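Example 3.2
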Amino acid sequence: MSWPVSQDYNEAVQDPGASFGDPDLRAAEPVTNALGLPLPCSGNFADVYHLRQPATAASWAVKCFTRSVPGRQERYHEISRHLRRARLPFTIDFAYLEDGIRVHGRWYPVVKMQWVEGVLLNQFVRDYLRQPALLEGLIGLWMRMARRLREAEVAHGDLQHGNVLLVPGSKTTSLALKLIDYDGLFVPALAGRPAGEVGHPAYQHPQRLREGTCGPEVDRVPLLVIATALRCLVSAGPPLWERYDNGDNLLFREADLRSPGASALFRELWSLPDPLSHMLVARLALACQDPIDQAPPVTDLLAEDLLPVLGAEQKARAEALLGSAGVSVAAAAPPAEPSPGDRFDFEEAGPARRRRRRVAWGVVIAWVWVGFVTLALAVTLPLVWYTAPQPADSGNTAGAHDPAGAAVKDKKKGTGGTGGDSHRGHAPTGQAKPPATGKESEPMPGDRDPPTR
């Protein structure tokens, strides 16, 4: 079957209500330029459009395919299922819609993904070339992402500046890293199947470009390319960037990776007076010469608990390939820990998911017990108070528990019943309370009973 071209999709996207099958997309509007035309981002296999829903302010990236790829629907199904289980903080939820967009009366698939506002990797690096502490922090973030990918048995398949976004974190001092474009992503369920794509040539192992290799090791060289470029820029700064940036790379080009020995860039980086850069450049050059599955994981080279070391054999091979250099590489120092203000943190894509809290049963039981004891005390203390025997006293304190008795006594005394106000130690209005002496107070003369005759 023939596939629509970019012009066909441009026309269809301008009428979302009639063109899309998804309810969200039917109610959305394409983001357009000053002339009112959609602004697609075009690639080798697809065009990506930005659609926004005015009522909810929700935004989506919609990928419309321009070429047929066998087994694409099954690939996306397996990728989606694996990513839902892995819950990687730098991936974005998506949906593969088989009846996605209608062009000239025929339905074609699309991928609907949450739109993420961010800065492309190469743009971020360019903007912060003069702040090496931020680039150091970015290296640490890159290492954590590489470690999480490896633990989840995931390979992105096209790690490059255009598929890596830096987005603001929840704090002003934090950044989140997001990966987009999952056409070439590898998960274990896809083992043995052909790759959907082979990635950007300026980041890939030459063998992958020749053979279309697909497997868990395909990200090793791209991860090492980006880590090496970042470290060398920390060491050499803006002049290095100005000499080798072409707007579609991160220092390296396809020719550099294909023939490191003939590369002016590799020779310049090899001579940098930074032991860590020196080591990374050597390992990258050798990795491009060796089979792809022998490329070292960058997380092993920059392990937090080990000093990066270039062995004697590796040093000899690198010198034979790139020439001799006067930098010692026996024990290069690991990247410096960034300052707290430059530390970057991962965050979940989109709204944070609520995590189910574990019930602390010990705490629950303790609180139930405290409540039971409190209730028991609240019930028994008043009973003890009111049923406790009172001292036999002919004074006004009898009114505290026997108001009737107090009235009888007051009638005998002719006081009019005011003695009941003095119960529980409160003095009647207009009288001062006598000081406590610790002994029973003597009765006042006027309070003595008249002698009986």
